[in-house]
Amino acid sequence: MSLRPLHLLGSPILRQRSAEVGKVDDDVRALIADLFDTMRAAKGVGLAANQIGVARRVAVVEADGQPAVVLVNPVVVGREGADRDEEGCLSIPDVFGEVERAARVVVEATDEHGALRRIEGAGLFARAIQHEIDHLDGILFLDRVGPLKRRLLLREWERSRKGQTGYLKSLAADGAAPA
To answer: Splitting the chain (179 residues) into consecutive groups of 10 residues, what average pLDDT does each group show?
Structure first.
């Protein structure tokens, strides 16, 4: 198990568009394994590579009882409907806001074997896919709430971080911060 520190709100890498992956090789597969290990330890439903400090277009999602998916260079090719629900983020712990997303999404992405796949999802699975693709584009869920709500959530974040410095959060295998 290889856990990577999570980059938190304020880390510049969360705001940059991640670079395309040219070829799925052993380095990319190792990154995918680290993403799954870190996501599961943090008890998340998705994780993008820039959240662990790697600015490459790779994300993983495991939500809503659906099989785990790998998204390398994902592109949304279809959206249907609208769904407003509460979202959180491993990079902004303990802060939640209502975000409107497509209710159903179709994505094309390369998998861990280098094969192009079409992935369709609804509900939490679709929401998590869209959330992770946003991360790869440097967009946070806070950018998808209204300005007043964003200010309130940012104040809540600042209060929760009082006395803490830095933008990295290390995890133990059980998801807690190491002692």
So the answer is: 92 97 97 97 97 98 94 98 96 95 98 97 97 98 95 92 87 61
CATH topology of domain 6-163: Peptide Deformylase (3.90.45)
pLDDT of residue 177: 55
Judge whether 80 counts as a catalytic residue: no
Distance CA 39, CA 69 (A): 13
- Choosing from 120, 132, 156, 158, the catalytic residue is 132
Question: Which DSSP string corresponds to 27-81?
Answer: HHHHHHHHHHHHHHHTT-SEEEGGGGT--BSEEEE--TTPPPEEEEEEEEEEEES
Whether the model pTM is above 0.90? yes
- Give me the residue spans of the domains in the chain: 6-163
User: Which residue, 67, 54, 47, 66, is CA-closest to 133?
Assistant: 47
> Are the beta carbons of 3 and 38 closer than 8 angstroms?
yes
